[in-house]
């Protein structure tokens, strides 16, 4: 897909809060995300300021991302795309990934529209100069991968996947697993995310 994280200078994310959210153990998730990105050399996160669907207190007074007005969320993301000017945009598939998280489903909708709108100057003219990403990839899981993922997602949880023949590109992340383990091991989110799957 391009170059490894060392070539990335920024990351746009819909997850995270307008105010710091702390876990029961006192971990600041926004600070954890920033530290993980620093370790990976991916710059600072760009937060859109919506609350997590499952943790509304993550951004008091703000709508959950899955409830955010579509036009407002698209405008915010178009602004970031036009500023960052990525060649490739990656988002969740229409199912929202394996767990079907409502924020991930909304992320798909918003990102698909924003990636298209970013290149059209007549849309959101106040959001910066138009920029059209060259490609939009949907992160998904083929049906054939689900059995191997059962240890992670649990036997009874729904696993949203697509027919193998619909997968048109794969990325071998093996060379970066060691580097990625470092932020994951430092993250209290790891157990929490697995609990949500």
Supply the CATH class. Alpha Beta
Write the H/E string, N to C.
EHEHEHEHHH
Q: Number of DSSP helices?
A: 6
| CATH-assigned fold name | Rossmann fold
Choose one word for the global shape: globular
Question: What structural category arises from helix and sheet content?
Answer: mainly alpha
Overall residue-averaged pLDDT value: 77
Rg, Å, rounded = 17 Å
CATH architecture: 3-Layer(aba) Sandwich
Number of strands: 4
Strand content: 5-15%
Count of discrete domains: 1
The N- to C-terminal Cα distance equals 26 Å
Estimated helix fraction: 25-40%
Sheet having the most strands = 2 strands, parallel
Strand order of the largest sheet: 1-2
Provide the low-confidence segments as ranges. Answer: 1-9, 13-19, 189-197
Q: CATH homologous superfamily name?
A: LmbE-like
Pfam families: PIG-L (PF02585)
InterPro entries: GlcNAc_PI_deacetylase-related (IPR003737), LmbE-like_dom_sf (IPR024078)
Protein name: N-acetyl-1-D-myo-inositol-2-amino-2-deoxy-alpha-D-glucopyranoside deacetylase
Keywords: Zinc
């Amino acid at each position: 897909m391009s170059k490894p994280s060392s070539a990335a200078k920024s990351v746009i994310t819909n997850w995270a809060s307008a105010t710091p959210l702390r876990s029961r153990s006192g971990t600041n998730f926004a600070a954890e995300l920033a530290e993980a990105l620093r370790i990976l050399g991916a710059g600072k996160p760009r937060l859109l300021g919506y609350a997590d669907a499952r943790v509304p207190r993550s951004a008091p007074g703000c709508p959950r991302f899955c409830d955010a007005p579509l036009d407002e969320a698209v405008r915010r993301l178009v602004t970031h795309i036009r500023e960052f000017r990525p060649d490739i945009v990656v988002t969740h598939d229409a199912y929202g990934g394996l767990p079907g998280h409502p924020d991930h489903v909304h992320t798909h909708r918003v990102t698909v529209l924003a990636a298209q709108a970013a290149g059209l100057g007549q849309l959101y003219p106040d959001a910066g100069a138009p920029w059209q990403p060259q490609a939009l990839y949907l992160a998904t899981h083929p049906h054939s991968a689900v059995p191997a993922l059962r240890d992670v997602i649990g036997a009874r949880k729904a696993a949203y996947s697509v027919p193998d023949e619909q997968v048109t590109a794969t990325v071998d992340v093996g060379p970066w697993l060691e580097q990625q383990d470092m932020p994951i091991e430092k993250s209290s989110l790891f157990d929490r995310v697995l609990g949500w799957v």
